[in-house]
Design a protein that fits this description.
This protein has 16 helices and 18 strands. The chain is of the alpha+beta class and about 475 residues long. The radius of gyration is 22 Å and the shape is globular.
């Protein structure tokens, strides 16, 4: 029997295929560390849309599953390799073109978010979305999950800055959705169908991004609390009055982990740290005064404005590194549940109660200004009982967010880890409609099977969408 990869090798060349087991190993999972990744036939490394088309035509012809992958920094298991499939890495797709006159950039998906920022900053422009992992995550991965970040409270998420995309479908066709137009309502609004679809409907090979003028210097304010309820109340008070350019939260566990790394003199005994920013240029500094007043009114035991940009950036950096800092305590089950901001305090208290009841460590950090939170559950894979309690706590946090009218994912995506809870959030009817869309675009179910949808969902008939209700991993 002929090697099924020979046809692909002929189309792409040897340099675009990785087939040695040791070389494939780093591509088998993302940062969610799925314990059961498959071993792919190959990792393919295309550089152009035409090469991605060749991969998808080959995969469609042979019925081979394809797992699209950016930098592998995803936190929900959405880039888990399939046994006998291929991993399609966009890491070599790195072209960028900036048009300062129209404030747009056309980029390939393999560029890091930080590289996009640097390229547009050189033209005096700004690409706002800023995940905490912006230095290591790709713009394509950001689009696939509709990533958020620290400034989203004021400036919005990735989808708000994507004007158009080129997408290769499961059968190898390349389609353009949207484009370099600020207003465009021709036909169905398909762009946001692909943005946030986690590689299940197509492979994004090019993005047209909307840019803003370079932002003004920001002023940073810091507040320390000895009570998480008061800290949450202060966040709500600020968010209900103004739109700060950042409004972030860390609890005691996260503060201690960050202090272990940075040694910058953070208050380890504080219950919560809130870091906020304003880029309002009004000379009276009303936003900063409003935030400082809210902190004081809600019982902060210390609050101050950073002396300069450098000190402000130190506190922003402290928040950005919270996840890797907490990871030093042990492997994590990472969540990104979100709730309406008035219910933030209830979510915080509920997560604290789950941690006590399950006897697990949960560090709580948040893009608090928009209600997007990151409970980080620490476990030890060698401790079976602790691991079981951690997984139970993971599900209970998800259930809590749903009960509060929130979401199981604000920016990391459903992936594989959160798929069992999707039906509880969106309901049977909308899940069935989603399955219909998936089947229409990917009838063989070869695009990222197991992510968002059960692995066999695309191949099943319309009358019997698969059961997504069992809470298993």
């Amino acid at each position: 029997m002929s090697d099924p990869l020979e046809e692909l090798r002929a189309a792409l060349g040897d340099a675009a295929l990785v087939t040695e087991p040791a070389a494939k190993e780093p591509y088998r999972r993302d940062r969610a560390l799925d314990p059961r990744p498959g071993m792919p036939l190959a990792v393919v490394l295309p550089e152009t849309t035409a090469e991605v088309q060749a991969v998808m035509r080959w995969a469609s012809a042979h019925g081979v599953p394809v797992t699209p992958r950016g930098a592998g920094t995803g936190l929900s298991g959405g880039a888990t390799a399939i046994e006998g499939g291929v991993v399609l890495s966009t890491e070599r797709m790195r072209a960028v073109r900036v048009d300062a006159a129209t404030r747009m950039a056309v980029v390939q998906p393999g560029l890091l978010n930080a590289e996009v920022k640097a390229a547009v900053a050189a033209q005096g422009l700004w690409y706002p979305p800023d995940p905490a992992s912006f230095e290591i995550c790709t713009i394509g991965g950001n689009a696939a999950t509709n990533a958020g970040g620290l400034c989203c409270v004021k400036y919005g998420v990735t989808a708000d800055y994507i004007l158009g995309a080129e997408v290769v479908l499961a059968d190898g066709r390349a389609v353009r959705v949207g484009g370099p137009r600020l207003k465009d309502v021709a036909g169905l609004s398909m762009l946001k169908l692909f943005v946030g679809s986690e590689g299940t409907l197509g492979v994004i090979t090019e993005l047209t991004l909307r840019l803003l003028p370079a932002p003004p210097p920001a002023r940073t304010v810091v507040a320390w609390f000895d009570d998480t309820e008061r800290a949450s109340a202060a966040v709500f008070a600020i968010a209900s009055r103004i739109r700060p350019s950042m409004l972030e939260y860390m609890d005691r566990t996260a503060i201690g982990a960050v202090e272990d790394v940075l040694g910058m003199g953070l208050h380890r005994d504080a219950a919560a740290l809130v870091v906020a920013r304003s880029d309002d240029q009004h000379p009276d500094g009303a936003e900063v005064a409003s935030m400082l007043g809210a902190f004081t009114d809600h019982g902060a035991f210390e609050t101050f404005e950073a002396a300069d940009q450098s000190e402000g950036e130190r506190f922003a950096h402290a928040r950005r590194i919270a996840i890797p800092a907490v990871e030093r305590l042990g492997p994590l089950l990472l969540e990104d549940v979100g709730v309406p901001i008035p219910l933030l305090a209830e979510l915080v208290a509920g997560v604290e109660e789950i941690a006590r009841a399950r006897e697990v460590t949960i560090a709580f950090i948040a893009h608090a200004g928009d209600g997007n939170t990151h409970p980080l559950i620490v476990y030890d894979p060698e401790d079976t009982a602790l691991t079981e309690r951690a997984h139970l706590a993971y599900g209970e946090v998800m259930d809590l967010a749903i009960r509060l009218g929130g979401t199981i994912t604000g920016e990391h995506g459903v992936g594989r880890l959160k798929r069992p809870w999707l039906v509880e959030q969106i309901g049977d009817d909308l899940l069935e409609v989603s399955h219909r869309v998936k089947r229409a675009l990917d009838p063989q179910g070869i695009l990222n099977p197991g992510t968002i949808f059960a692995a066999d969902s695309a191949a099943s008939d319309d009358s019997a969408a698969p059961d997504e209700g069992a809470h298993t991993r």
